[in-house]
Amino acid sequence: MNEQSDLDLGLSLPIMEHFYTIQGEGRHTGTSAYFIRIGGCDVGCHWCDVKESWNPDLHPVSSAEEIAKMAVKHSKTIVLTGGEPLMWNLSPLTSILKELGCTIHIETSGAYPMSGTIDWICLSPKKNSLPLKEIYEKTHELKMIIYNQHDFIFAEEQAEKVNNEALLYLQPEWSNREKMTPKIIDYVMKNPKWKISLQTHKYLNIP
């Protein structure tokens, strides 16, 4: 079987990076976890802080089995991120991780169909490529990135679409945090269904 077929089937994936660290955002802030950043994304957010992840051809291809065995040496909590991880078939990787006793989180824009076995879905919608209905229904955590004032309106629109059990977070976009964080604080105090998420890993100077 050739490399492209393996990629199509999810038996191999383009991996930008993988590392053991502390989750810095959202519900599981402060939790140690092994991050697997999968290359490839066509959502194209202008403020993305990992634009180097967009082109999957720039990143080495590794087998799902190899990735899983490396990850589990460090942690049983695994975070799949990107790029946009749902561009790929995650079933082989997550099946192996579950066999190894892992809890699997994903960080996604929701623009592609869900694949694999995922225990915690962090949905971060983007205006130019909205989530699929099935992702809204399964979301555990809605994380809205606030770059400008209009993003509060977009956040409310997205909150209306997720299931009633989903946790709601507003997170300042890092490059504009000094301007938007005070506005987020004020907004959450007026709208307490929301919580604040900060990129605490950047404050801690860790990956």
From TrEMBL:
Every Radical SAM core domain range: 28-207
Top EC class for this record: lyase
Residues the entry annotates as binding substrate: 22-24, 37, 81, 207
Catalytic activity: 6-carboxy-5,6,7,8-tetrahydropterin + H(+) = 7-carboxy-7-carbaguanine + NH4(+)
One GO molecular-function entry: S-adenosyl-L-methionine binding
Iron-sulfur recorded as keyword: yes
Residues the entry annotates as binding S-adenosyl-L-methionine: 47-49, 83, 124-126
Superkingdom assignment: Bacteria
TM helices/strands, residue ranges: none
EC number: 4.3.99.3
Keywords of this entry: 4Fe-4S, Iron, Iron-sulfur, Lyase, Magnesium, Metal-binding, Queuosine biosynthesis, S-adenosyl-L-methionine
Needed co-factor(s): S-adenosyl-L-methionine; Mg(2+); [4Fe-4S] cluster
Involved pathway(s): Purine metabolism; 7-cyano-7-deazaguanine biosynthesis
Keyword Kinase among UniProt keywords: no
Alphabetized Pfam families for the sequence: Radical_SAM
GO BP terms in the entry: tRNA queuosine(34) biosynthetic process
Cofactor binding, per record: Binds 1 S-adenosyl-L-methionine per subunit. Binds 1 [4Fe-4S] cluster. The cluster is coordinated with 3 cysteines and an exchangeable S-adenosyl-L-methionine.
Record-listed [4Fe-4S] cluster binding positions: 41, 45, 48
Family of the protein in this entry: Belongs to the radical SAM superfamily. 7-carboxy-7-deazaguanine synthase family.
Record function comment: Catalyzes the complex heterocyclic radical-mediated conversion of 6-carboxy-5,6,7,8-tetrahydropterin (CPH4) to 7-carboxy-7-deazaguanine (CDG), a step common to the biosynthetic pathways of all 7-deazapurine-containing compounds.
Subunit structure: Homodimer.
Name of protein: 7-carboxy-7-deazaguanine synthase
Organism: Apibacter muscae
